[in-house]
Amino acid sequence: MTSRMYIDGQWVESVSGEEFPVVNPATLEVVGHVPSGNQEDVNQAVAAAHRAFSSWSKTTSLERSNLLYRAFEILLERTNEIAKILTLEQGKPLAEGLGEVKFAAEYLRWYAEEARRIYGDTIPASATHKRIMVIRQPVGVVAAITPWNFPAQMVTRKIAPALAAGCTVVLKPSEYTPLTAIALFSVFEAAGFPAGVVNLVSTSPGDVFGDAILADSRVRKITFTGSTHVGKYLMKGAAEQVKRVSMELGGNAPFVVFEDADLDAAVEACVVSKFRNAGQTCVCANRVYVHQRVIDEFTHKLKNRVERMKVGNGLEAGVEVGPVIHADALNRIQAQVDEAVKHGARVVLGGGPVTPSGLKGAFFAPTILTQVSDTMRVCQEETFGPVAPMIPFTSEEQVVAMANRVEYGLAAYVFTRDLDRALRLGEALEYGIVGLNDPLPGVVQAPFGGWKSSGIGAEGGYYGLESFLEYKYMSIGLSR
Q1: Which of 70, 91, 132, 217 has the largest CB neighbor count within 10 A?
Q2: Residue 1 pLDDT more than 80?
Q3: What is the pLDDT of residues 362-393, one digit of tens each?
Q4: CA atoms within 13 A of residue 321's CA, in its CB half-sphere
Q5: What does the alpha-carbon distance between residue 291 and residue 42 come to, in Å, rounded to a whole number?
Q6: Each residue of 47-78: pLDDT tens digit?
Q7: Would you state the pLDDT for residue 205?
């Protein structure tokens, strides 16, 4: 499978003619080649977006809404096809891929509707001969950078609000999962978006794109999902030209289970949160805090549930845990587990790589650790893998202090039957998203964003439009 970039309404090769391979992380087979764009390719895409902005920004909200809704319809029609591409290059089970593509479509539908609700204000003036009006206008060309762990959902979550606001977009997908983005851009093409409104540039390595957009004054907004390290680099560079930024960065989610929780429900929730996408989600449970009165029972139930999970190629029936994205990720996870064991942790389940059905990919066994200290790397760093460290606690105050002790603040989870306690914890935890008896709080209509080093800004809901719009205040003087 050979694919192309999408610039100014055309499918094109890179200026250099160079390509790079896309590898299936389950089999290590090459599943496609995509152009390796350079700075000139990025410049061409930005130029196309800049030209298109003058007309796209003046279209009616109804026109933008209709195009987004048409893209939603086409994406639903192609769900099975795109989900298979997603699983081939990313590795997650096909059932998860299907769910992700449908979720990606929902962002198109939501912002098709939200495009019609970009309101302004009239404000009472302080003089009888004046009127005050506030309107909203699009910021301009948007550069979007998306990660490999959700290669469909992240694309539409960034592009849909930008287009709804009247911005034009240049997107760079992860070099590990560009084929899903290419398939999505074929949806935008089929929907009839004008040339230059949406542009796709694939690059490897990723810093080619970052350097180019930071230097280009035509880019007025950067939206990025990825590591905190790269986010800080982009924020520093954006400051030179005062570009707007929104960042969804690293996470280190605490999963808190109180002694009064429904343990069976909490176990299922932990499995969903921790082992979905092989633990490679920014909001997955990274530290599992369980009240000391029930930690042994909870751990036993969790072990019995997790050891039944099938590990393998995401295209195989019944597989619940696919590969991690590459060997470097496997080695990083192993290093965290080894460090924990060295300092006293006990491996209850898993603990290292596995080779299901003779596959060559980077598979890590679903792992449960006990006798874990909150100071171990597996708790202080984001694991991004299928490892659940179990940590006991004795009181609300203690667990809140431990949960808040890290630099990240994206998502947190609390399981209890006590409504008062749930609300107290929800307010005390320093996180942008809190799931109270809910392991999957992400929805299109609510803000998704983190505190502290987990990012700036939010995506989703009407909140997701804010960073793509400027306020304009017009003071109108009337003849006396």
Answers
A1: 91
A2: no
A3: 999 999 999 999 999 999 999 999 999 999 99
A4: 29
A5: 52
A6: 999 999 999 999 999 999 999 999 999 999 99
A7: 74
Q: pTM value? A: 0.96
- The per-residue pLDDT for range 348-360, each reduced to its tens digit, is 999 999 999 889 9
Single-letter amino acid, residue 154: M
Query: 5-249+454-475 belongs to which CATH class?
Result: alpha beta
Q: What angle do CA 45, 104, 252 make, to 5 degrees?
A: 95
What is the per-residue pLDDT for 480? 75
Q: Are 270 and 439 in contact (CB under 8 A)?
A: yes
Task: Render pLDDT for 168-192 as a digit per residue (tens, 0 to 9).
Answer: 999 999 999 999 999 999 999 999 9
pLDDT digits (tens, 9 = 90+) for 422-464: 999 999 999 999 999 999 999 999 999 999 999 999 999 999 9
On whether the 253-444 domain is CATH 3.40.140.20, my answer is: no
**248 among known catalytic residues:** yes
Nearest to 246 by CA among 238, 255, 257, 258: 238
Exactly one of 100, 248, 396, 459 is catalytic; which is it? 248
3-state secondary structure the chain: CECCEEECCEEECCCCCCEEEEECCCCCCEEEEEECCCHHHHHHHHHHHHHHHHHHCCCCHHHHHHHHHHHHHHHHHCHHHHHHHHHHHHCCCHHHHHHHHHHHHHHHHHHHHHHHHCCCEEECCCCCCEEEEEEEEECCEEEEECCCCCCCHHHHHHHHHHHHHCCEEEEECCCCCHHHHHHHHHHHHHHCCCCCCEEECCCCCCHHHHHHHHHCCCEEEEEEECCHHHHHHHHHHHHCCCCEEEEECCCCEEEEECCCCCHHHHHHHHHHHHHHHHHCCCCCEEEEEEECCCHHHHHHHHHHHHCCCCECCCCCCCCCECCCCCHHHHHHHHHHHHHHHHCCCEEEECCCEECHHHCCCCEECCEEEECCCCCCHHHHCCCCCCEEEEEEECCHHHHHHHHCCCCEECEEEEECCCHHHHHHHHHHCCCCEEEECCCCCCCCCCCECCEECCEECCECCCHHHHCCEEEEEEEEECCC
**Per-domain residue ranges for the chain?**
5-249+454-475, 253-444
